[in-house]
Amino acid sequence: METITIGCIPGGTANGLVKSILYASDEEYGIEEATFLVAKGRRSKMDLTEITGEWEKKKIFSFLSTAWAVIADCDINSEVIRCIGEARFTVWGVWRCLFTRTYNGTLDYNGFQLKNKNEYKGYREER
């Protein structure tokens, strides 16, 4: 298993990772506090989620959570109305509820597979 050390300083609209790191270190949330923590060189381990997209066949790594379907749609596609601020998530969420889409996918977890329409299949032998 490979390890890598990264330093995180907030600079966007959703800085959940930085907030979690600072909280675990008993620090207030802010740019100065995060920069100071990076300068001190304090390390902490974290788990990552590995995602392989069906359409691109490339691995993506995620931390904290993985969003898919309506949540990801609201986050990514609402960029076109970023000018209205944080309300863009609510506006896009209402829009997506009024004009729904279908999000197809398959979830593989710990040797089991969950496909569309609640189709469940265990494909790994029990240990």
Structure, described:
With 127 residues, the chain is of the alpha+beta class. The protein folds into two domains: 1-65, no CATH class; 67-127, no CATH class. Helix content is 31%, strand content 15%. The chain contains four helices and five strands; from the N terminus they run ααββααβββ. The protein has helices at residues 16-24, 31-40, 70-77, 87-98, and strands at residues 49-52, 59-62, 107-109, 112-115, 119-122. The strands form two sheets. It has a three-stranded antiparallel sheet with strand order 3-4-5, with no helix packed on it. The protein is flat, with a radius of gyration of 19 Å. 5% of the residues are buried. The model is unreliable at 123-127 (pLDDT under 50).
Question: In what order do the strands lie side by side in the largest sheet?
Answer: 3-4-5
End-to-end gap: 22 Å
Secondary-structure element order, N to C: HHEEHHEEE
Uncertain stretches = 123-127
- Count of DSSP-assigned helices: 4
